[in-house]
Structure formats: structure tokens, C-alpha cells
Specification:
The chain is α+β, with helices and mostly antiparallel strands and about 280 residues long. The protein folds into 2 domains: about 55-220, Alpha-Beta Complex (Cathepsin B, Chain A); about 220-279, no CATH class. The chain has 10 helices and 10 strands. The strands form 4 sheets. It has a 4-stranded antiparallel β-sheet with strand order 4-5-6-7. A two-stranded antiparallel ribbon has the order 1-2. It starts with a helix and ends in a 7-residue tail after the last strand.
């Protein structure tokens, strides 16, 4: 009986050490590595839960994603209100859509299946904030120093996005359909519809900075960087590279037709390699 009890205790201990039975968050992934691969034992493991999140969650960080193909205006306005104004409640797109339908030009909204800047202004006024649509140059958009809703014409569609900021020749926007994206300055000016912007006037002490630029927004890779690293020389001796290339190539037996060669008329093996070149 003692042997059975000891055996059961050892089995329980091994199982307890091998498996983490504590409840883990939904976003936790179990990471396990062997501390010493020469000793195959359950107790010689390092385990820890690593919290991860889908890339899509970061892509839409701080953005209310549009629920319908025609609701970019309501989603953009919800994003701006939640991210820039210190309201007592956090709005949903449904809240804002209902408000736009109630205070906006309801019949025109239904007819065109979209919201206008005038509808936005009326709703924002109804909740006690000042706002307005303006027209200006690109320098005006940058110098006003606050997020704004801007209409763009992109990929054949008219669309509302939230301008977040400008840095080093790039314009960063919160797109209700695509998430946090950026455009080259020249490209943005090409698609910016009528140089129009919609601003909400908020006292400094009542502002939020959830739409401010951060490092994650600026993780784009420009063409020069791609070219530099995609075609960088390999850091290996040339003879080693030749050896790898020969091993991966096709071998063909050819007759030497060079009359000046010592091996003229003899058959030699040639390595046929496939090369790629950037057009």
C-alpha cells in the first residue's frame, strides 16, 4: 500500500509540474522551453503565459470600426468624439447614428445612404459642443494641431477618415474601414476632397489625447528601406555563396568548344543557376 501511495503522489506531482492548471486569460499563450535538453524531465521546464492580441486589434487601436459600408461618417465622428473630447460617456457608433438621424437632415440621409458634415455639426451642437466645417490648405490642416474629420476620394469611393497628425512627410489617419494607416504627403493632397475639414472646438482642459501619434503609428517601411534590405549583400565569403549556389543549381554535361582551352573537346559538368534581377 505504501508503494502505491508513493507512486500516486509522484504521478500527481509530475502532472502538477507538467501542466499549469490555473485559469489563464483568453489572450494567453503557453510558452514552454526545456532548461536542459540533455535531461528529459517534466520538472526541468520553464513555463510562462505570454499575452498576445490579434494584429487587427492594434490596427484599429482607438478607432470605432464602421459597421456598414455607408457608415464611415458616423464611425469617424464616434472615433473623434471618444478620442478627443472628454465626454461623460463612451459613445458607440449606434448612439451616433441615432443622433445623426434625429438631428440631421433625415430624409436626405435616407436618400443618399450616408451622413454629411452638416449632419455631424447638428448632432455635435445637440450634445453641447461647438464644431464647424472649414476649407483650407494642407498647411492649415497641419498647423491647427488637432484631429479633424476629412473627406477623401480613394479607390473609387468617397470616404471619411480622421486626420491624426503629420510627421516627416507622412499624413497619419484613423480610417474606420482600414484602421490606422498613413499616406505620403503628396498622395494625401491628391485624394483630399475639396480641402475640407471638420473640427470640434474643445477647451484644452476637456481634451483627450487618444488620437495623438505614437511609435506604433509610425511603423511603416518606406521604399528606400525595403530596397536597401531586400537587396543587401549577404555577409558570407564569396566561395561559400558559390558553393551554396552550385548545390542548388541544375547540372548539365556540356562539351568544351573553346579551342584555346586545355580541355578543348572534353565534356565538363556546368552548374546552371537561375538569377533574378530587379527591373
Amino acid at each position: 500500500m505504501l508503494e502505491i501511495a508513493l507512486g500516486s503522489a509522484l504521478i500527481y506531482y509530475a502532472a502538477k509540474e507538467a501542466f499549469d492548471i490555473k485559469e489563464q486569460p483568453a489572450e494567453a499563450v503557453r510558452y514552454t522551453e526545456t532548461l536542459d535538453s540533455r535531461q528529459d524531465s517534466f520538472v526541468r521546464m520553464h513555463r510562462e503565459p505570454v499575452l498576445i492580441q490579434p494584429a487587427l486589434a492594434d490596427q484599429f487601436r482607438g478607432i470605432v470600426r464602421q459597421a456598414y459600408d455607408y457608415s464611415c461618417g458616423s464611425a469617424a465622428l464616434t472615433t473623434l468624439l471618444n478620442g478627443y473630447t472628454n465626454l461623460d460617456v463612451k459613445l458607440t457608433e449606434e448612439n451616433v447614428m441615432n443622433g445623426l438621424l434625429k438631428f440631421g437632415e433625415t430624409e436626405k440621409i435616407i436618400e443618399r445612404r450616408s451622413f454629411s458634415l452638416l449632419d455631424m455639426k447638428r448632432f455635435v451642437t445637440a450634445i453641447g459642443l461647438e464644431s464647424g466645417g472649414y476649407k483650407g490648405e494642407f498647411s492649415d490642416l497641419v498647423s491647427q494641431g488637432q484631429p479633424a474629420i476629412v473627406p477623401i476620394s480613394y479607390a473609387g469611393f468617397k470616404h471619411f477618415v480622421v486626420y491624426k497628425g503629420y510627421k516627416d512627410g507622412r499624413v497619419y489617419v484613423a480610417d474606420p474601414a482600414l484602421g490606422n494607416i498613413s499616406f505620403d504627403e503628396i498622395r494625401f493632397q491628391e485624394i483630399w476632397e475639396n480641402n475640407t475639414l471638420f473640427l470640434i472646438n474643445v477647451a484644452p482642459e476637456k481634451r483627450k489625447n487618444l488620437l495623438a501619434l505614437n511609435e506604433r503609428d509610425m511603423r511603416h517601411v518606406d521604399d528606400a528601406t525595403v530596397n536597401r534590405y531586400a537587396f543587401v549583400d549577404m555577409q558570407y565569403p564569396q566561395f561559400y555563396v558559390e558553393k551554396i549556389a552550385d548545390k542548388a543549381s541544375t547540372i548539365r554535361l556540356d562539351k568544351n568548344t573553346n579551342k584555346d582551352s586545355e580541355s578543348y573537346g572534353q565534356s565538363n559538368y556546368n552548374f546552371l543557376r537561375l538569377y533574378y534581377k530587379n527591373k
